[in-house]
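Lay summary. Proteins are chains of building blocks that fold into shapes, and those shapes determine what they do. In this project we predict the shape from the chain. Here is one chain we studied, written as its sequence of building blocks.
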Amino acid sequence: MDLNVQFYRMSKQMKTQLYLDNLTTIFNPQALFADGTEFYRCPAEPDPYDRVRLRLRCARENLDSVILVFNDERIEMEKLYNDRLFDYYETFVQLGTEQVFYYFEIHCGQMTCYYNNVGLCNSVEEYYNFTMTPGFHTPDWAKGAVFYQIYVDRFYNGDRSNDVEDDEYFYIGEGTSKVTDWNKYPAAMGVREFYGGDIAGVMQKLDYLQELGVEVLYLNPIFVSPSNHKYDIQDYDYVDPHFGRIVKDEGEVLQRDENGNLKADPTYPNKSASRYICRVTDKENLEASNQLFAEFVEEVHRRGMKVILDGVFNHCGSFNKWLDREKIYDKDESYEKGAFLQEDSPYHDFFYFYPDGSWPDNTHYDSWWGNDTLPKLNYEGSERLEQYIHGVARKWVASPYCIDGWRLDVAADLGHTPEYNHKFWKGFREAVKRENPEAIILAEHYGDPSAWLDGTQWDTVMNYDAFMEPVSWFLTGLEKHSEQKDDHLLHNSQAFMCSMLSNMSRMQTGSLYAAMNELSNHDHSRFLTRTNRVVGRLYKPEDAEKAEIGVNYGTFRSGAVIQMTWPGAPTIYYGDEAGVFGWTDPDNRRTFPWGKEDLELTEFHRYLTGIRNRTPAFRRGALKPLLAENGVIAYGRFDADGQGVVVVNSEDYSQRIRIPVWEAEVNGDFMDRVMATDAERYNAGTVRYPVTDGVVEVEIAANGAMIFIGSKGE
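And here is the predicted shape, written in a compact code that computers can read:
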């Protein structure tokens, strides 16, 4: 019998017989536990020279000894106390200033094994050691907080006077388009079509967001930019007046002849876009827009919520005032000449120009993935640029704007070398934290983030590897773009749990609990569409309706249950809670369906956030996997005051399972089921389940999920 898997299934008679047969202690591997939360490591985020208490949990009278291996030091731990279920070994270590690593060496009879950041193992694996970095503090407010991501143009139009007009300017081969039908599907080349969402619109919907249980607003870029996505920044110093306020509105849009052709200069048509030039370069509009944003943040803070902004610092846009390829700023003497226009521009070294280029109108510059509308910023060649961007970082976290942090776009690809990138983010962190020590620095990153989460650079990451991808594979069999399908990973409980634990181990505890856990976002297909298990990344407008066919609401709700109960900061992508569908971008950027919401789904999310927000164990508690077999996962979340247990069935048939809730420190005689979902519906009523010998037995529906709450027994 495999004791590592089957111990909790054994009867007392079986355990007694094994003991008599072997005349030795029966090792109970499921009882072992340690992590970086407050009970098992105190303080959880220590300062330099702190004395830190470390604990390991095991079954009562089960182990002979426990050795803490702390860097190169071996410390025998003391068994200091116990409760009804467990013994607790503990010791103290003295920190210095350097990062430290540790694991536990466990002795039971003739057996020696090890416990590290992914759990029990048979050999020492340094890659998975626990890590402590003295002085590394991630913002407490972000740990376990419910985030909400807003793509501003598609959320709500609160001020129609600032809407982008038809042919207001020219961008990527065509004039801009003002969309008058809010419910229209996005065009394939939709970067130049605008629906009119703005800051005023977000402000008008703050009541809705509060009622949903949202605590942090994450806004996609809002700075002056020609696209609706605004990842092509034109001016880092100002909010785009099309999102803000237009108080001075002069000039004309681009004109067309009787055949529909633009009358403007075919090479530089935006020289004639006088209305656009007025709107986005006139200081009255820019200052008014910044003022509106300051008022917005003040109102959000008054409600007890936070705001973080999207920082796009690896590249800018061809409209950028430092380059001015569109000759928008050329005639305004209050702006210095752009580097595209003349070689002696003060911004020349902000960009890398290839030797084969020449001025004026030098098109030979380095760009992001070869897109000349996205010139890459030349940090290695310009210390002034680096200082400027650090100043931008400070400006928006400081008064009067007082944002609560930054989400950093493709942060590891900032410069041309990893060495420089690490240097830049260290300076960035110093600049931000000097203004606001509680501001969060959250980076978009793929792969192992540990080199960036060392206490000197980022606080945390968008959690692609330790949340979004494994959840998508397990529940849908698709990766996050809907581009690839893998039936081997669909329903593969063990692969899911192994992937989650392995990738989680690359983050220190504070970073993990503040990590952005998403099901969908502006780059990837909507999770609701992904539940149809159809490969469909390459979006075509005529295929838009297909995104709604064959979706599984039970699977979607199961994903939301995991999102709201797993360690990290659950981040709702606007409209997911209202039933918005969509393939990958631009289809994933559909408008919020005000007046046409899936109200049942919205109410489901309100219940979910309510459960999370009133259950501290789901926000900051420890995580213990309890079950991973036959397409089912179960895990416990627990702290000193209570426990939560979650079970999810990814299969298309119901299953009867036994959950060893004792491993999650459930010590009472019952647990309350507070949420149940299946393919057809959800139930938020409370149903009491007995706990028998530490086990809860349940029938879980096909594509279903259940949430249980317990309390410490006496």
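What the prediction tells us: The first helix runs from residue 3 to 6.
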